[in-house]
Specification:
The protein is an alpha+beta fold. The chain has helices at about 5-15, 35, 55-65, 80-100, 105-110, 155-165, 190-200, 205-215, 225-235; strands at about 75, 125-130, 170, 190. The structure holds zinc ion. Zinc ion binds near residues 77 and 122.
């Protein structure tokens, strides 16, 4: 999608779909606030896995080049809606509660790898989870150990480390031992030419207000301090290349 068209589409979208916590939203911003939390209607391409066109084009080009190195770059997740993230969240929340964890501990465990609905970078359609399609028989595709030396996705991880940025993709949750927030995710890459702008806009949201308005399971345990820590560690403590 051409940038100008993207801007006009998203501004129209924000007028058509009003959302109370964003009453301070001004048209000078160019991203529909609903799209920041997975509740918009972005223009997407793809069937099972859906992408923004610009992200898909870059992904496709990267995939074609990686094929020459014997790797079949395959996205197993790209755009994800608020509702989908809510399903993931509530499924894990209930599973951990049934295992005897207290609500706070259950939430703490979920956010090792999964986001609070409304806060996933997958909502933006800019981030993708990648595996090697030549090794789809791995029992748990998105396990960090699959990318270790001698394991099925090692070659993929090495190739991405060397070449992904040439296509605009940056690893979001790096191995930096000082980094807080989400655990390292060798499969999660972000399309920087779009995602930096999305993050910049996302940071203007009153996150606690938005999440409280949604009222999903576990959301009554969010406090201002807890959300502030989540924002600083899980949203902002990422690859510095992806910060606005
Ligand atoms: Zn991901």
């Amino acid at each position: 999608m051409k940038r100008r068209r993207f801007i006009s589409n998203t501004i129209c979208g924000s007028l058509a779909f009003s959302f109370a916590p964003f009453s301070m939203f001004s048209l000078s911003q160019d991203i529909d606030p609903n799209e920041l939390i997975g509740k918009g209607s972005p223009e997407l391409v793809g069937t099972e896995i859906k992408f923004r066109k610009e992200v898909y084009d870059a992904y496709f080009s990267m995939r074609e080049d990686a094929k020459k190195a014997g790797i079949l770059i395959t996205a197993v997740s790209a755009y994800r809606s608020f509702e989908r993230q809510k399903q993931i969240w509530e499924r894990k929340y209930n599973r951990y509660l049934s295992q005897g964890l207290q609500p706070r501990d259950s939430i703490k465990k979920i956010i090792e790898y999964s986001t609070i609905p409304g806060t996933s970078r997958h909502h933006w359609g800019t981030d993708i989870d990648i595996v090697d399609g030549y090794h789809m028989d791995v029992p748990h595709l998105l396990a960090p150990s699959n990318f270790n030396e001698g394991k099925p996705f090692y070659k993929l991880g090495q190739w991405l480390g060397q070449h992904a940025t040439e296509y605009g993709f940056y690893r979001t949750y790096t191995e930096d031992p000082l980094r807080k927030g989400f655990k390292p995710e060798p499969w999660h890459y972000s399309y920087k030419p779009l995602s930096v702008k999305f993050l910049e806009n996302f940071l203007k949201i009153d996150l606690l207000k938005v999440l409280k308005a949604e009222n999903f399971q576990g959301s009554d345990h969010f406090t201002p301090t807890w959300i502030e820590t989540y924002r600083n560690e899980h949203i902002l403590d990422i690859n510095p290349e992806l910060l606005p």
